[in-house]
Design goal:
136 residues; alpha/beta; 2,3-Dihydroxybiphenyl 1,2-Dioxygenase, domain 1; four-stranded mixed sheet; 8 strands; globular
Length: 136
């Protein structure tokens, strides 16, 4: 059986412009294409150098659930997404007021793995991880 390749993450946003500014400014995403849905709506794709892609939609209604806190939702679903950085302290400093810390920074082991969880402009939780290695 074929192994599917990851394609994109669809994100519904209250303010797509703020979402796009945040991810282009701090996480290296670029607008790679846009499709007009109708006269007032546009579907935008943001892609980074690793080929990770957001498909950005405008929200048509408010969320029926509260925004996540700490390191993400505790009910079934996506908890957070993570980005690896060289230096968490320097990265947070460069983000300034846009670094809305929800939890941490904390050491996750004695091998130099640290993490902090922040919110993007839409309230989605992002883990910034330093020294992450999947082979602990």
């Amino acid at each position: 059986m074929e192994t599917p390749l990851f394609a994109h993450i669809g994100v519904t946003c209250k303010n797509p412009k703020d979402f796009m500014r945040f991810y282009t400014q701090y996480f290296g995403f670029k607008k790679t294409s846009a499709i007009s849905i109708d006269a007032t709506k546009e579907l935008v794709f943001l892609t980074n150098s690793e080929g990770i892609c957001f498909e950005v939609f405008l929200a048509e209604q408010d969320s029926p659930i509260a925004s996540p806190t700490a390191d993400g939702y505790t009910h079934p679903g996506w908890r957070h997404m993570a980005f690896s950085v060289q230096n968490i302290t320097a990265f947070l400093h460069a983000m300034g007021a846009d670094a809305q810390i929800q939890k941490g920074p904390i050491a996750l082991n004695n091998e130099g793995w640290k993490a902090v969880w922040i919110q993007d402009p839409e309230g989605n939780i992002i883990e910034l991880t330093e020294g992450f290695n999947t082979k602990f």
